[in-house]
Automatic annotation (TrEMBL):
PANTHER family (alphabetical): GLUCONEOGENESIS FACTOR-RELATED, UNCHARACTERIZED PROTEIN YVCK-RELATED
Homology family: Belongs to the gluconeogenesis factor family.
Subcellular location: Cytoplasm
One of the record's GO molecular function terms: LPPG:FO 2-phospho-L-lactate transferase activity
Superkingdom, natural source: Bacteria
Chief subcellular location: cytoplasm
Organism: Ligilactobacillus equi DPC 6820
Signal peptide (from-to): none
Keywords of the record: Cytoplasm
Record's GO cellular component terms: cytoplasm
Protein name according to UniProt: Putative gluconeogenesis factor
Keyword RNA-binding tagged: no
Length: 330
């Protein structure tokens, strides 16, 4: 059963990739009323294979979000997350949860949205998990050299400077989010974007016209959690202010209210650059340029070093989010 408690802070988290569940797990622990709006433009890995074969919304990000907000015992969540190894040739690389989501989407002729709501109830999700659109979207990019490319994984591997991204549907209609997504954004106390890939995890959601409009019109505080490291093929040598400038430019106005920036240095030679080959340098700080865009800047030690990788400390980030949400409400 999905529980709704109106006295809790209403927080909408928009994004995709591995950064989204980090924030959601800690918000879940804090009993916030969470709505996750999840990208449907992924075309890599198991999600991409399933999308190509049975033409459903890529399930991987949705699967991870469902688990992050689930109240099921850990053993059941581990089953849902289990990924077959390479010796299982037919199922190799697929997570059980991806297959379940794909099956439910195929059973429901109205698209992925209703299927995810049914699964959220089965998984005892505390909150809401909303696909950003009810059908799979294709991400497009225009590069600084004048060329264009389609496909999230191809764009991120092109090693070109991205100037603009947008999304399309397979049937050529204008992408639209369900009304539930728009209502959640408009009724929220706080909108959180990130951490996550700027062009391929966050912007695909905002490029859905009614989602972008709602984020600009909402009275909620709009918060961007800036990435700690720059990303190959997307944000090479970007400062924190350049991340925000890209977001503002895509929506045509300065809509970010607050930016969370990690200021703790990443130790030299800590990062395993073979394992985490998409990360390049630590994001540079430009607080003056952030404030020039109308942003309040919150800088602190949000760094978590683990397994020779660089991550956001979800607990520290959410402590700050809850503090800001309390200020907004009271």
């Amino acid at each position: 059963m999905i529980r709704r408690k109106s006295h809790r802070a209403k927080i909408v988290v928009i994004g995709g990739g591995t950064g989204l569940p980090v924030v959601l797990r800690e918000l879940h622990k804090q009993k916030a009323e969470v709505t996750a709006v999840v990208t449907v433009a992924d075309d890599g890995g198991s999600s991409g294979v399933i999308r190509d074969y049975i033409n459903v919304v890529p399930p991987g990000d949705i699967r991870n979000v469902l688990v992050a907000l689930s109240d099921l015992p850990e053993k059941f969540k581990k089953i849902f997350q289990y990924r077959f190894d390479s010796t299982d040739q037919f199922f190799s690389g697929h997570a059980i949860g991806n297959l379940i989501i794909a099956a439910l989407a195929e059973m429901d002729q109205d698209g992925i949205f209703n299927a995810v709501q049914e699964l959220a109830e089965m998984m005892q999700v505390d909150g809401h998990v909303y696909p950003a659109a009810n059908q799979a979207l294709t991400l497009h990019a225009h590069f600084s050299d004048g060329t264009e490319m389609a496909g999230e994984s191809e764009i991120s591997q092109a090693n070109k400077t991205i100037e603009k991204v947008w999304v399309t549907t397979e049937d050529g209609t204008k992408p639209r989010a369900r009304q539930e997504v728009i209502d959640a954004i408009m009724e929220a106390d706080q909108i959180v974007m990130g951490p996550g890939s700027l062009f391929t995890s966050i912007l695909p959601n905002l490029m859905i016209e009614n989602v972008g409009q709602a984020v600009c019109q909402t009275k909620a505080e709009v918060i961007y959690i800036c990435n700690i490291m720059t990303q190959k093929g997307e944000t090479e040598r970007f400062s924190d202010a350049q991340h925000v400038e890209v977001l503002n430019r895509h929506l045509g106005q300065n809509f970010i209210d607050t930016v969370l920036v990690n200021t703790q240095p990443v130790p030299n030679d800590y990062l395993d650059r073979q394992k985490y080959d998409e990360y390049l340098y630590q994001v540079k700080y430009d607080f003056k340029a952030l404030r020039a865009q109308g942003c309040k800047v919150i800088s602190d030690d949000f760094l978590l070093l683990r397994d020779q990788g660089v991550f956001h400390d979800g607990q520290k980030v959410v402590t700050e989010l809850m503090r800001l949400a309390g200020q907004k409400r009271f």
